[in-house]
Amino acid sequence: ETKSMCTSQHHFNPLGRTFGMRLKNCAGLMCGLTCGCPLQSTDQHQQERTVVSSCCSDNQLTCLLKSYLNNRVRTTKYTVLSFVPKNLFEQLHRFANIYFIFLASLNFVPVVEAFQPEISMLPIIVVLIVTALKDIWEDFRRFRSDHEVNRLWCSVYCRYNGKLWDNVGCSSGDFVRLSCNEIIPADMLLLQSSDPRGVCYIETANLDGETNLKQRQVVSTMEEGEFVPENFHWRIQCENPNNNLCRFRGYMENPSGVRVGLHNSNLLLRSCTIRNSESVVGIVVYAGHETKAMMNNSGPRYKRSLLERRLNTDVLWCVLLLLIMCLTSAIGHGLWLQQLRDPVFQVDGETSPALAGFYVFWTMIIVLQVLIPISLYVSIEIVKLGQVYFIHNDLDLYNEQKDCRIQCRALNITEDLGQVQYVFSDKTGTLTENKMVFRRCSVYGVEYPHHDNGRRLEVYSAEKEETRRCSLTPWSSSRRKSLSCRSLSCNRSSVSLNTLTAEEEEELSCQSLRGPSAFDSLMEVVPDGELVRRLNWLCSPDLSVVNSSTKGSSSPELAFVTDFFLALAICNTVVVSSPSHPQAPFRSLEEIKLMFQRLNLSTLPVLPSLPSPLKTSPRLLASKIFTRGKMGSFTVSKAAILDAAEEADLYKSITSEPPCAEEEGAVDSEDTVLYEAESPDEAALVYAARAYGVTLRARSADSLLVQLPALGSVQVPLLHVLPFDSNRKRMSVVVRHPLTGQVVVYTKGADSVLMDLTRTPTGNSRLVRHIRMQTQKHLDSYAREGLRTLCIATKAMEEEEYEVWLKTQLLAESSIENREELLQRSAQTLETNLTLLGATGILDRLQEEVSETIEAIQRAGVKVWILTGDKQETAINIAFACKLLCPSDQLLSANCDSKESCAALVQDFLQRVTCYDCEISGTPGPGAPYTGTAGCVLVIDGFTLDWALQPELQSDFLELSKHCKAVICCRSTPLQKSQVVRLVGDKLKVMTLAVGDGANDVSMIQVANIGIGISGQEGMQAVMSSDFAISRFKHLRKLLLVHGHWCYTRLANMILYFIYKNVMYVNLLFWYQFFCGFSGSVMTNAWVLILFNLIFTSVPPLIYGVMDKDIPVDVLLAHPELYQTARSSKGYDPLRFWLNILDAFYQSLICFFVPYFAYMGSDIDMLSFGSPINASALLIILLHQVIESHTLTWIHGLVFLVSAGSYFMFVLLISVLCVTCSPPTVPLGVETRQMSQPSFYLVCALTTVTALLPRLLFRVLSNTGLSSGPHTPAVDSARAAQRWDLSSRANRLSVSGSCPEVEPSSAPVLS
């Protein structure tokens, strides 16, 4: 193998970043033209792809490989030559840039020139250069990243030893060898693994964020023998590149025509990491931009907020105002020229008044261009970045256990968090922990309540509450403040989130303040005493005595119990490993046979007879197929629920050997196995089976090692695994029983599906009907308690029946077209006539502070909908637990089986809730306004929801939902979730927010206006598709009520202030036109005119938009009604916009005419007259923000001083040094002379006070009016906020205001 494999330093990009699909390589096309080899036809190419070994001697196939993309990636947007034209082209797509370029070009026309043309180019040049520099930096970072990852090396097989290929990267058809912990360079088909079982494990954290290991299987025909690349003559036919991570269809065909099906478990995806495998060899099928990782990443998310859409309307109003001013100036100049007689100054008499007015119109467009806020959009982006920074560094939104803080993935919709009206939430993993704990079970129609396990969980809840209280102590608070927030995403260990360790449990508590825990591992199950005694009968020396006992168990019941726990142990896809120690000795086959011969096997559902002894020794089989390796750190400690003697007997009955004296009452740590499950449900069931002695010891691709109580370890041949999917709602495994050799199917799934698939045998129908009836009662009871329910069933197959099904299954696996449909049809054929074994109830506890969060959100006037796939009873129970439902609420349950019944029921509910609304509100008639206060809650199942979402019933369904306080959609599919969110958002015109944690929530998250993903137990698909990512549902409370409120009010006030200052300054130039014949002249030099808004007054609005706090955080959290008040008052609406414009007009009038009347009759020149106007305008604009600000810190003071100081320093330098820098005006000595006169300061002071007096008076009166009036919670909250505001104004310069959202900490914070 070493000789046939040489290491070539080839380049690949392990982490997928998208730049879009590129065209096929020109090399491949040129190859087809030069050598004449026919490439695939268009139709064939659209359907499938052909891949062969790169060592193939067939020229046609070699040319076909060259037509595919190589593994080099390029995510940069520009090259050295294309940057300038391409970047300019992109920036010219913005209308504002085109507008200002047009004005700058217009100023070069002599007849409309307003001032020096070069100066007019300054604003647009600055904007274009700053944007270009930002684009250069971002593209350079992409280029550097591409360069680094493309230079990484991987071992690629070379046909000729010693030949080094060029740096073109591995391509389709190349053989690649990888070692443990190496990143997969491209999508490869697994052909060989160092593991003798023919498997390897990959970690997909770089792809989807999941840290639990996934098992991949070598292609079936390649499992045996050593892989030699030269001997690989198979042709791979697979689907074209696509972005579906969960699907891969194709087959391999050898020269003799034998085909082998390929599926997703044979594919190693690019950017994943090899784990727990010494080495693997694969052939590349997709490379570069054709890999699933590259095609799956759609780049950064961009959404337009509601505030931005309103801003566009107001900018159009500013354009209209500009046109009115310019048109007024043009008409005024024409009339002035017509009435001008014997002018004392030079006037162009050859130009008609109409044409002169036309020229003045364009001149005024140039002069008043500042009215259109060119820098507003850039300022908004900067403000949003500042807001995101403070949200990201909020310690209250930091999860200490996961070392995870909030992620802001969509940077431009932060203000929409303050306008949410509907919240759509998933249940499992979003409201609940998604850390499943086995709670109860029903076997053979008998329920086992597991009371000891329930008391253990109550102790856990009490300890968790103590932990939460401990987190409020000063010690804990200071500790939290010194925590490190090291990354934008959750830092996860290599241990799966489903693999809970004792250390992780200890981290949930305040170790210095709490006593010993009642248990060390949450997943550990305390067995039910009655069920343990039934399993102990298997070890009884005299089974007849047990059967004759009144409390004894019959052979059928014991068989059901045994099969039940065997199904829990093996019907899953968990990855198993254990500490490296010798395997416990197997029981001899004769001992096992003798043990089972003591039972009446004719009554067993899957053990009808005993075959001849197996020829292979279990010890030999175990040493051949099982490999041990440590994959995590899971420690098991058995809780003491019995006395010492009973514990010894229990341990002996399960392990067949007594515990050590020093470890009595605890399971030996050497017998610990480590489970890593893809879902928490699987982990909970496997741990439950292990608690009863049915332990899954090891797993391979074709066999399982299971330890049974009193029997030891046995091998279970694994024939097929039919994985879970959302359509079937179940999973199955097909095994060959180790004792009987009979083919057996074990199935677990939702009770709504599995109960219909069970059969009633003719021989014992009464017993089976009794079992089904009792099991259904237990399921309903579990659902009412809020437990997640699963049914367990089995089926024994004859060899002929299995052979017929096997042919169908193999045909489906080898198909390319309609492979999923064929596989599903094959699974449905197998999963029929099942024998019901029992059911399980799994506890999924609520997350902490969920009820407080939902209650606060509802008090804020936000409606909460729960969209879940669980049973109706489970969802209702959870809704009561989280206070979404109250005992006094009227519950409306919609369960219909036809469209007509659904329509009638919705109409009936609509009439009932309308009457209920009238009774509550006291307003008669069906046309009463929808106050949303009625205590009606609608509960609708998935079948009824299908009818309700149809166009004929949509309006009635929405009308009903508007009357309801909350809506719970049960048994809903991912498609239904997205349809509901889209329907409510589009039809009701409301702001929607969707929150979820799993892949089934992705469509709902993407459809909502705001999508929030929770980094929970189901991977990171929801997080990767979201706008914001949080670690706990409770963080939603502060994110909406505090940061949402602040972001909206800050940005709205900043936009209004920005427009105000532009209008105010532009009006000064407009009033001057009445005294200069509307000629377009200005009373200031061009430099001050251009830089006034561009530099001198540009920074204060940014600080205002980032750091202002109108209401403190504790008041916002204590009084959620303020969120609704701020949302309904519309901090940025047309009324406030026009009042802001009127205030700007008033202040401009005062700022212009106070100096005008002060200097009337004097010989002051034009620039000297403009000097106090500009200075007064600067002071008015800055002090106006001081009045409007609710929070003032030393940062605000510093910015104000720098802004004012920079203006005065600049005008003084111009006055001293400028001689010809601003033609035709000469500002030399103007400012120095003006500032040396006391009248200058007197005029500025009088102008500033007069202009700001109405604004200040309005604020005083509004604060005084807030102190009196009716006492409502919202008003009281506003008063409290105002008192806080007034107290903060008394302390204007605070020394701790650099980060208003994060409390100051003396402890260092690492970054």
From TrEMBL:
Mg(2+) binds at D426, T428, D997, D1001. The keyword Transmembrane applies. The keyword Zinc-finger does not apply. It is found in: Endomembrane system; Endoplasmic reticulum membrane; Membrane. GO terms for biological process: phospholipid translocation. Belongs to the cation transport ATPase (P-type) (TC 3.A.3) family. Type IV subfamily. NCBIfam families: ATPase-Plipid, ATPase_P-type. Its EC number is 7.6.2.1. This is Phospholipid-transporting ATPase. One of its GO terms (cellular component) is endoplasmic reticulum membrane. CDD domains: P-type_ATPase_APLT_Dnf-like. Residues 66-120 form the P-type ATPase N-terminal domain. It is a multi-pass membrane protein. Residues 1023-1263 form the P-type ATPase C-terminal domain. ATP binds at D426, K427, T428, E682, F724, K748, R788, T868, G869, D870, R971, K977, N1000, D1001. PANTHER family: PHOSPHOLIPID-TRANSPORTING ATPASE VD, PROBABLE PHOSPHOLIPID-TRANSPORTING ATPASE. The chain crosses the membrane at residues 315-336, 356-378, 1072-1096, 1137-1158, 1164-1183, 1195-1219, 1239-1258. GO terms for molecular function: ATP binding; ATP hydrolysis activity; ATPase-coupled intramembrane lipid transporter activity; magnesium ion binding. The active site is at D426 (4-aspartylphosphate intermediate). Keywords: ATP-binding, Endoplasmic reticulum, Magnesium, Membrane, Metal-binding, Nucleotide-binding, Translocase, Transmembrane, Transmembrane helix. It comes from the Eukaryota. It catalyses: ATP + H2O + phospholipidSide 1 = ADP + phosphate + phospholipidSide 2; a beta-D-glucosyl-(1<->1')-N-acylsphing-4-enine(out) + ATP + H2O = a beta-D-glucosyl-(1<->1')-N-acylsphing-4-enine(in) + ADP + phosphate + H(+). Coiled coil: none annotated. Its cofactor is Mg(2+).
